[in-house]
């Protein structure tokens, strides 16, 4: 049986848009919703800083991150795995 106080850990998926910082990458999350009145699809983007301990992510990688305790003022997620590496042109 589940405990009433247990929380599911929130996972997010996004694309790395910046890796300039040490042990930190910025990912962009794209959500699409239908407008309730006009029935048009709206695209919303949000940027989240995640903790990358091994500096393994590069710009363009698709990653999964999980919510954790606050690691710094703006970091509340850490890297779980890299789904797809960026293709070099």
TrEMBL record:
<protein>
    <recommendedName>
        <fullName>Small ribosomal subunit protein uS17</fullName>
    </recommendedName>
</protein>
<dbReference type="GO" id="GO:0019843">
    <property type="term" value="F:rRNA binding"/>
</dbReference>
<dbReference type="GO" id="GO:0006412">
    <property type="term" value="P:translation"/>
</dbReference>
<dbReference type="InterPro" id="IPR019984">
    <property type="entry name" value="Ribosomal_uS17_bact/chlr"/>
</dbReference>
<comment type="similarity">
    <text>Belongs to the universal ribosomal protein uS17 family.</text>
</comment>
<dbReference type="InterPro" id="IPR019979">
    <property type="entry name" value="Ribosomal_uS17_CS"/>
</dbReference>
<comment type="subunit">
    <text>Part of the 30S ribosomal subunit.</text>
</comment>
<keyword id="KW-0687">Ribonucleoprotein</keyword>
<comment type="function">
    <text>One of the primary rRNA binding proteins, it binds specifically to the 5'-end of 16S ribosomal RNA.</text>
</comment>
<dbReference type="GO" id="GO:0022627">
    <property type="term" value="C:cytosolic small ribosomal subunit"/>
</dbReference>
<keyword id="KW-0689">Ribosomal protein</keyword>
<keyword id="KW-0694">RNA-binding</keyword>
<dbReference type="InterPro" id="IPR000266">
    <property type="entry name" value="Ribosomal_uS17"/>
</dbReference>
<dbReference type="GO" id="GO:0003735">
    <property type="term" value="F:structural constituent of ribosome"/>
</dbReference>
<dbReference type="Pfam" id="PF00366">
    <property type="entry name" value="Ribosomal_S17"/>
</dbReference>
<dbReference type="InterPro" id="IPR012340">
    <property type="entry name" value="NA-bd_OB-fold"/>
</dbReference>
<keyword id="KW-0699">rRNA-binding</keyword>
